[in-house]
Amino acid sequence: MKNLILIRHAKSSWEAPLKDIDRPLIQRGISDAHLVASSCIKFLPSTFVIWSSPAKRASETALIFAQNILYPIESIVFKDELYTFDQKQLENVIKSFNNTFENVILFGHNGAITDFVNKFGDINIDNVPTSGFVSLEFDTDKWEKIEQGKTKHTLFPKKIK
Q: So what's the pLDDT on residue 161?
């Protein structure tokens, strides 16, 4: 069994003239990330790894979650290939995961996340919002063999507030 939790980065700023990869979170994003992180604890497996896009908004979101769920921040793995908006590229990265990892929490970007959860989950989601949490379960022991999975849990800021 493989379990994948996809979390879209929290709300970020478009105000400053920065490269996309350098855009920081805004206050609402920080608050929403804390809200979802503190609400998701009951849905987490007992062991997992956290991987994140290196984009500032994704890495800041991963740090907020790690602090809330008591995951050592120095154990977060930042993967350049997770800085993608393309579902197929995200799928290729996920299918290349080492099979020793049963449970992965991944912080990334839309539209890759929404398109991925709609392709592999069993619930259609119009749009995974910023700070959105989607947990998928796959009945396989090899990441490269993932196919249609089961959407186990979703947590979105507006539904928690």
A: 74
